TrEMBL record:
One of its GO terms (molecular function) is ATP binding. Keywords: ATP-binding, Nucleotide-binding. This is Asparagine synthetase. It comes from Linnemannia exigua. Residues 241-260 are annotated as: Disordered. GO terms for cellular component: cytosol. SUPFAM superfamilies: Adenine nucleotide alpha hydrolases-like (SSF52402). The lineage of its organism: Eukaryota, Fungi, Fungi incertae sedis, Mucoromycota, Mortierellomycotina.
Length: 260
């Protein structure tokens, strides 16, 4: 399903209404999912399987490459799993149910979680060329059996992680940032801390979403339910939640370009 950037921009206000959040990465990723769900509903499909939870369980986000140790990685995966209802599961549930589509999340099956979260966290570390979510990728790797039909081409199975709001097209996030510059003046942004002393927007894009949020929901009554998704700054990660903001993203693409 192909959508234009303008289609996405036109849907922002409705997405904030359905998602009940002003979190930057949630809105970035929920807008394409919201539009995809509309298409799925129009096709007559009532239920879909979705992959939420895999990155949290197996350390799949690119900022996990910066984990100082296996113990730190495990602590972060536990925290991410426990807070899924504020971010990825919130997105998956509300983006789909806005159109009456039910999303089921097999990676969050309790029995599977019990096994996956007890895997030695050293096996989930990404280093020395070992890709993120290596365990999960190997489960679909048939290279040890030449007679087996591959589940997926290697170009997909071993490609670098792309967060959803990046993977739908890099122009999507870039345009959101550019649009925010036209919607929020320097003067307004300079007074952000006065307007919102708690959880102050740190970018004009965040300011824009906060304004849209307030059009639908009273500030005092609703902001406590919002939790922002950001990488670990104490691991040296940029505050921008886009996977493209992480150093490992560019290094992987530079490596691929050199091999080509």
């Amino acid at each position: 399903y192909t959508f234009t950037v303008q289609d996405g921009l036109d849907a922002i206000a409705d997405v904030v209404y359905h998602l009940e959040t002003y979190d930057v990465t949630t809105i970035r990723a929920s807008t394409p999912m919201y539009m995809l769900s509309r298409k799925i509903k129009a096709m007559g499909v009532k239920m879909v399987l979705s992959g939420e939870g895999a990155d949290e369980i197996f350390g799949g986000y690119l900022y996990f490459h910066a984990a100082p140790s296996a113990a730190d990685l495990h602590t972060e995966t536990v925290s991410r799993v426990k807070n899924l209802h504020y971010a990825d599961c919130l997105r998956a549930n509300k983006s789909t149910m806005a159109w009456g589509v039910e999303a089921r999340v097999p990676f969050l099956d309790k029995a599977f979680l019990e096994v996956a979260m007890n895997v030695d966290p050293k096996e989930k570390m990404s280093f020395k060329g070992k890709m993120e979510k290596h365990i999960l990728r190997k489960a679909f790797d048939t290279s040890d059996d030449p007679t087996a039909k591959p589940y997926l081409p290697d170009s997909i199975l071993w490609r670098q992680k792309e967060q959803f709001s990046d993977g739908v097209g890099y122009s999507w996030i870039d345009t959101l940032k550019e649009t925010a510059l036209t919607k929020v003046s320097d003067e307004e942004f300079a007074k952000a801390a006065t307007r919102w002393p708690q959880d102050t927007p740190q970018t004009k894009e965040a300011y824009w979403y906060r304004e849209v949020f307030e059009q639908w929901f009273p500030q005092e009554a609703c902001t406590e339910s919002v939790v922002r998704w950001i990488p670990r700054g104490d691991w040296g990660c940029p505050a921008d939640p886009s996977g493209r903001a992480q150093k490992v993203h560019d290094s992987a693409y530079d490596k691929n370009a050199a091999q080509a």
